[in-house]
Amino acid sequence: MGITIPKTHKAIIYSNPGTTATEIIDVDTPEPESGEVLIHLTHSGIGGHEGVGEVVKLGPNVSSCKIGDRVGVKWITSACLICEACMSGDDGRCAKRKVSGYRMPGTFQQYVTSDANYVTPIPDAVPSAEAAPLLCGGVTVYVALKKANLAPGQWVALSGGGGGLGHLAIQYAKSFGLRVLSIDHGSKEEFCRQLGSDEFIDFTKFDDDGLAAEAKRITDGGAHAMLVNNASTKAYDQALTLVRYGGCLVCVGIPDGDANPIAKALPWYLIVNKLTIIGTVTGSRKDAIDCLQPAARGQVRTQLRIEAMSKLTQIFDEMAAGKIQGRVVLDLSRVD
């Protein structure tokens, strides 16, 4: 019996751009063009570019996918794979890249077309709901940890350890054999420790100097690397005081509000302390495939709650209030 593909399907749009207001509408189901597949999405992360589903139709000239394959759609949905940027693993800088949810539909919908050569195969051992956040948040912290270039047994400090990115970073760090110091609100200590965090600091109990002293006490001189996973300017201002001589700061989260230089990031301070600052953004097609392997081995499990499509505005508001632990995933089969 063949697969029935509806002529229209449900999608979420912003009903009042500039606010978190959303609504569910009916949209036409697209036809896959040459080199594309049509995917029936079952789950989406709340970034709108973390979708997982099943291939239900092939466009012309597709040989890399087949009907029934379970695949993921990432932030970058297509890249040429042959330019200098792509060959260097920087697919996100490809001049021909396509971005999910930016000038093309994202994953807040039940059906989407995507480049057959760029979708991410999902391992059988990883449930779709758990896989979705790994396609953006997971690959982001996975690449950030790789760029920190740490050896097993070294310390990594994670600002926002109990958040959507941070809770994944804890688990990836442990899969790399690292020791983890999580920094977050005290209400998230148990959550972080359950995920494998070796130590925890409640940032609300310390001023800047006290936080630096506590981190250095715990790690015997400071972390070898610090990942700022949240959108806190304060976390960036504190970061360079939490790492040891020769340590590095990996910038992951983008701060809210006005853009300001990182405190202590003065040439003399970086030179005499031999510090490195690294910027990172998501990852390549290969990185996305690789980051799913620890999850397939059971070393990384997305901590999540699943909600219906109609709950998206409520989720956005909870995020803004800092009330979410781990991740939230939309079940795209549930409208209300």
The structure class reads alpha/beta
Helix content: 25-40%
Radius of gyration: 21 Å
- Beta strands, count: 17
Terminal Cα span: 29 Å
Beta fraction of the residues? 25-35%
Average pLDDT value?
95
Largest sheet: 7 strands, mixed
Number of DSSP helices? Answer: 9
**Secondary-structure element order, N to C:** EEEEEEHEEEHEHEHEHEHEHEHEHE
Looking at the structure, what is the overall shape?
globular
Q: Low-confidence runs (pLDDT<50, min 5 residues)?
A: none
List strands and helices in order, with pairings:
Elements: E1 8-14, E2 22-28, E3 36-45, E4 51-58, E5 70-73, E6 76-78, H1 84-87, E7 98-99, E8 111-115, E9 120-121, H2 128-148, E10 155-159, H3 166-175, E11 179-184, H4 189-194, E12 199-202, H5 208-218, E13 223-228, H6 233-239, E14 243-251, H7 267-272, E15 276-279, H8 285-296, E16 304-308, H9 312-320, E17 327-331
Parallel strand pairs: 10-11, 10-13, 11-12, 13-14, 14-15, 16-17
Antiparallel strand pairs: 1-2, 3-4, 3-8, 3-17, 4-5, 5-9, 6-7
Helix pairs in contact: 2-3, 2-8
Could you describe the 3D structure shown?
It is a single chain. With 336 residues, the chain is an alpha/beta fold. It has nine helices and 17 strands. It has helices spanning 84-87, 128-148, 166-175, 189-194, 208-218, 233-239, 267-272, 285-296, 312-320; strands at 8-14, 22-28, 36-45, 51-58, 70-73, 76-78, 98-99, 111-115, 120-121, 155-159, 179-184, 199-202, 223-228, 243-251, 276-279, 304-308, 327-331. α2 (128-148) packs across α3 (166-175) and α2 packs across α8 (285-296). It is globular and about 65 Å long. It starts with 7 loop residues before the first strand and ends in a 5-residue tail after the last strand.
